[in-house]
Amino acid sequence: MHAVILAGGKGVRLRPYTTALPKPLVPIGDQHAILEIVLRQLSTAGFTSCTIAIGHLGEIIRAYVGDGSQWGLAVDYAAEESPLGTMGPLLNLRDRLPETFLVMNGDVLTDLDYADVLRRHRASGAPLTIATYARKVLIDFGVLTTDSSKVVAFTEKPSMDYRVSMGVYGLSRTTLDGYTPGLPLGFDELVLDLLKTDNQPHAYDFDGYWLDIGRPDDYDRANAEFTTRKSLLLKGA
């Protein structure tokens, strides 16, 4: 099994942590970088190879990870000369990729079964499988519904429930057909294009542990919880 880790972003939301370090290398706990945790998890799940798409401070990532052998992985790299979006780096890699593979952001902290995502993707026959997570958004205001300048309904500080993308996907190489290598391609654009052609992605619903470390609040939470979550995130460590 093969995975592509997207690690080329500038990590603007995590400044000043990311001024000197690429976001996937910011520390979690006292000993581990996020990217190290991800690579350990992929190896434990049975993945044998991985491509890391690098950009901002990418040489630091390359120096830290090397060839991946310390985690039992064969790691290679794809460098972005300019930002290509979430899916754009895959277009330049297309000929190097297997027919189905895992794609994930390099700042995800979760106990998701990556191998099962890829297995379910293969079984579904879908062009894209999106790992999803339930989020509740609290609105801190009274919400008004108006019609012709009249208030017709009012809800005090409602909450809204969504399923959001976890930043982990199963993808088929043929899904990238028709897109031009070297041009930006976002996850949002790819999903909208699939929906326009009635070629719906498959959802992999997950209710375990997940944090998007790109969010400062979640990064602080991850560090606070890591000691108690370590055995869950790094099985056998």
Automatic annotation (TrEMBL):
The protein's name: NDP-sugar synthase
PANTHER family reported for this sequence: SUGAR-1-PHOSPHATE GUANYL TRANSFERASE (PTHR22572)
Superkingdom of origin organism: Bacteria
The organism of origin for this protein: Streptomyces massasporeus
Nucleotidyl transferase domain: residues covered: 3-227
Source taxonomy: Bacteria, Bacillati, Actinomycetota, Actinomycetes, Kitasatosporales
A Pfam family matched in the record: NTP_transferase
SUPFAM superfamilies on file: Nucleotide-diphospho-sugar transferases (SSF53448)
InterPro entries recorded: Mannose-1P_guanyltransferase (IPR050486), NTP_transferase_dom (IPR005835), Nucleotide-diphossugar_trans (IPR029044)
